[in-house]
Amino acid sequence: MAMAQCSCRSNSSTKVSDINPRSRIFELNAIKDISYVENCDLVATNMTMTSESPVSALTFSIKDASVAVNLRVYIRDSSLKIGGAALIPTDTRSLSLITVNVLLFSRVQLIVMSLVGNFTADSGRAKSAVSSTLVDFPSFGTNLSIDISDVNVTATFTGGWPIVVSNSVAKLVISSTLISIVPLGVEVLQRQELKITVRSSVLTVQHAVRLSTELPLFSLSFSFAVSIAAILNSIQSLQNSFMLMESVRLVRVFVEQKSPPWFPAMPNGSSLLQSPLNFGVRFNITAHINLMDQSAILGSIPGLNTPLFTSIVDTLTSGSFHVTHHQTHTNITQCSLHVSPSDIALSETDVFMFMTLPSNFTNCTVQMTDLNAAVETSRGVDERSIGAPFGSLGAATITDTQLTVRRANLTMLLFGVFATVTFTGKSMSYTVESVVVESFPSPLQTMSLFVFGLAMPGVTFTVTLPLASQLSFLNITDSTFANFTALFFPNAMQIGTLGSPQHSMRLLELGCNLWNGSPMSIDVIGLTTLERSYINYSPSYFPSDPSKFCIGYRSPTLSREVTPSMTLSHLKLSTEDVPSTAVTSSLTAVATSIAGIVGALSGGSSLMDAQTLVGLGQSSCAPQQLKDSTSTSQFLLSPFYPLGDVGIVLGNVGLFCVFHGLHRLLLMVSRRRSSKAAQYRSNALFPQLRGGNVDFHRGDGGVSAENQALTVVAPEVASKFPNHSILAAILLMPGVIHGGTRGLFSGDVIGSVVGVVAVIAVFFCVWWRVRTGRSQLVLRMKFMAYKMKVIKDFIAPWALPLGYWGPERSRAMFGRLRGPVRGGAEWLAAHSQFSALIVQFVSSIPVPQSWCTGLWFVLVGVYVVSCVVVVYFRPSRAPLSDVLVLVAHIASGTVALLAGVKSIVGQDSSDSDALVTALLVASFVSMAISLLKTVHSVVMFVWEQRQQQQQLAQAPERNAVSSEIRASGNPTRGLRLLSRQGASIGYIRAFPALVEDLLFEERPQKEKIRLLVEMVCTRET
Fold first, then answer.
1. 263 to each of 279, 301, 304, 345, how far by Cα in Å?
2. Would the N or C end of the chain have less CB density within 10 A of its end CB?
């Protein structure tokens, strides 16, 4: 354990140079500018260190040497406590663990691992700066390595306010960092080959800063306080360097502010540029990496950039106005920035970001992934997002630099405060992917309403777009934006030297993004129509939710060739050559929705036809116009389509489970009611069963009207179980296949789980269909032909069914398994549904663009096979049904064929618009044919109902006796009674129905045969 304490007492008149209080555990104080420090190792492990001083508390200090070579400092598994007192009004107060201040260095390695640190200070009337840092390295040189890991540091500063210096400017900078690279004087050299790594560390900062009330009353008075909380504070030019932040957490804790951010308070509606210079301002800067010198901030403010002001700033601050980073590579991953508590109101001078941009950024790369910036409650729970990945407080120029942000929760993507931010260079780019950006009420109301915000009037983002570049300056995809007015601040983008939009670098490359939960439209970008000529916004799906589709933006063509020297004011737009397919697309959309709704209401096949077309239109390979025409009809696949593939699959499966459960519950209730009423019906209709007498030999062979009133049907027939459940499964299955296929091939964990659920649902339905189709009740169904004379009497006999499936009870229960086809074609009963589901599956596979031609022609092959089956076997009950099914398959196959041809021809071909028009016409024709199929089904239904009514009128006694036997609750006893009474005319006519009831009874087959023989062998029969 090592401890060093220094406690000094002095009055304010004592000169600092006379006492120079300081605290050190180790100090190497060389002869200034002469000595060499070479091949030194300083190692400290398993230590508890305490250092206190009113001015300077530096635990390990190496200073004043002219050169440091092969220096290594290694600190591990230790704890640190450093404190300062506000006893002496000095210029600065410094608290640090490691300080290396030499003129030049080479091959220096500083390592801090597994350390807990606590910095506390009362900053008092410090005139210039108060700082705390683990590693303070103000030197110049090459080949520096700083490695910090598993560190937890807390810095708490109280008091402190700027006081007037030289009767002109007052300034106080308070900073708490893990690494500080801030020169002590004016910059003369550049640091090269720096490698800075920070992993698995936490920095918690609390600063209480007050503004001074001692402001002079003349024009050049300016008082400001800057509070910096940063992991790395580098106010120095770097070259060929590397910075890594991994799993680093920065927490800024605010306390109640004692004064407003502006002093005196600004009038309503005024800004910093419009106010008198006799005022003060407080900045709270919170950033993982701060690369902006405070002098650059002041130098950006018009009116203060005077020779007198410049000399004052050079005296008060370190560095110059031009901090430059060249070929510096930065990686920030899995880092978080937190502000607490949430009930402290933030001011308009509180800025939060992961990186503050330097004055110059040239040939650099910055990659940020998995970021989280949030305001915390007092319990440490994230309440809302905050901050931006990049921000600029002064003038900044970004040249040939690649900025990348992926997977982050933020409130802005870029902001500028005092001066213009300039982007230039052939390889300049800013890529944003899978980012959630949500605006919240903020003191910076105007700036917070825009994804790219500017705080001051006249401040802009200036972008120079070079010629012949394959890159776009700004690339945004798979991101979500909420509660913003627009993407860009009004008039924010000042586009520099322009070429033709066809030949220059694009300003903005947009993938599919969501704006307030809906696909982003071109109107929310915030650029003028002329500036939109430099936007590339292609139609695409939202990658995280393929159910969301962005229609993109096609800029109007230029009326004449544009030379590189022209500016936006010379561009004239012409929309005459832009083809319009809006009418055909709208007709197709309306026809699709109508066909689907009518099909759902009628239970016909037109709903599946509409679902198939929607599946084709929402395919990853579908042309944009087909996607537009079917996007409004996605509800036909599932009412849960806005929730994405997860909602479609789970919603449809849930709907079926609820419907089938209610259907089965209804059957159970009906059975119970039928069982309770069985005895009453038996006594009323068959008194002989309880010793009474009934006359079955009435002259008309019928029964009394009283008994007819008691006629009932079986519960299965009345509830049509499971026929309605089978229909529900048929109509919901396309949505399950559509969403499940896209989820299964998405490569996402949640999507894969949804795909597995869809596969299980499909296998269950197939098993259920096969099991039900093999039951005895279905296998015994017979196709009963209508009399040809009755059919030929109709005006269009080829439109009528050739027969029907019986018996009636089986048809009511299992008609969906036989109804559409004639006798002998039972194996093709599910042909149409099977074809539709195959098409739905293939079209839902998200294939690369290069595979689209193959996908379309696979679909064409499916339709060709289906057409061959219809032509060869003619399975439908009505000849017209085969024709309509064939024409519908041809129309849908034509849609797939034209889409395949278009994928070969390409978007820019002269035949592209003609193909799109033909494709939309074919889509409209296919939906019109589906509507005709529904009309034909209704006509057949009405005709068959009339035929059944005629049969009932011709043979009432058969139906009455059959109903009485069924209503007795014991058909077998009723049949025995009738056979002993002797067969009447009514019994003979009712015999087929009575046998049907006998076959439906649950008893051994031999007993059924014996009863049947007993009935047949009566003399009357």
1. 5, 17, 17, 17
2. N
